[in-house]
Amino acid sequence: MADGAPPTDEGPSADDGPSAEGGAWLELSVTVDSEAVEAVSEILGRVAPGGTSVEPAFALVDDGLRAAIDASRPTVVRAYVPALDREAVRAAVADARAALWHLQAFGLRPIGELQTRVVHEADWAEAWKAHFRVLRVGRRIVIRPTWRRHRSEPEDVVLALDPGMAFGTGLHPTTRLCLAGVERLADAGRLARGSARDGAARVLDVGCGSGILSIAAGKLGAGEVVGIDTDLIAVEASIANARRNHLARRLRFRRGSLPSGRGPFDVVLANLIASLLVTLARPIRDELGPGGVLLASGIFVDREAEVTAALEGVGLTFLDRAIEGDWVALTATARE
Fold first, then answer.
1. Which residues of 162-179 are buried (b: 16+ CB within 10 A; e: fewer)?
2. CA within 20 to 30 Å of 13's CA: 78, 170, 205, 237, which one?
3. How do residues 256-290 score in pLDDT, each as one tens digit?
C-alpha cells in the first residue's frame, strides 16, 4: 500500500523532455493486475484524448495457432499524449501519477508505477524491422531482409525477403527446420530431377506464408513451384517476394487449399500445425506422385506420434526426422 502524500513530479524535465518536432508522442504505461485494468484505463484516458490500449498477457494454444489470455499474469495499459506542448505533457504526467497514487493507496489490487517514454511515428513504422537480421540456416541458405545488406560467400543461396504481415521469416523454429529440410532434399538430388518440363522437381508449398520455402526450393533447383494459402495477404506477400528473388516465372501462388488441382508433385512442403496435418493427411498424400516426398513441420513434440500415425495411415513411409526445441519436422515418401 502506498503511504504519505501523493507525488508532486512535474513530468519530464526540459533536458529529457520530448522534442517539439511533429510526430512525437509521450507514451504512458502502467503494469497492473487484470482486475485493475478498467480503473487504470479510466485514469489514463482522462489525460490521453486518443484513448488507451490494453495488452493482456497471453499463452499460445492449439499448437501455437491461437493465443489465449492469461488472467493470472499482469496486463499493460498504455496511452499516448501529443508531445508538441511541453506544459501539457507535464500536466498530463502529473495528473496521471496523482490519480494512480490515490488508487494505489487503497491497496486493493497490484498496480505498478507510471512509466513514460518518447515515441516517434517513424519508430512505429520501422521498429519491427529491427528484429529481423540476416540469418543463416543449414549450410548454404541465407535469409536477407530486403532492408539489410549481406556479403555473400560463394556457396550462399540468398533469399531476399520482406514478410510484410505474412507468416514465414525464418525466425521460427518450424521455418528453420523446413529450410534445412529443403536443403537436404536438394543435396540428395530430389529437387534437380522430377516431372517438370525441364526435368526438375515439381513442388507444392501448402500454407506458403511469405513464400520463403517456395523461394528456397526454387533457388535450390526445383523446376516449378506452386504455393497455396487461405490468407490473401500471404499470397500477395509470396508473389512480391518471388519477384524480388527473380523467380516469378517458376513460382506460382494462389489463394486456396487442398486439393490443389495441379498435382501430382514430386515434393510437398507443409509447414502447418499438427491438427491440420492430421486432418489433411489424405489430401496431402493425394498430391504426391509415386516416390514423391513430403516435408512436414509445425509439429509439437507431444503431437508427433499422432501426426506420424495419420501419415502412415495414408501410405507414407518415414525417411527422416529433425528436431529443434519443442518442434519436429518429418520427411516421408509415397510408396511407389
1. bbeebbbbbebbbbbbbb
2. 78
3. 999 999 999 999 999 998 989 999 999 999 999 99
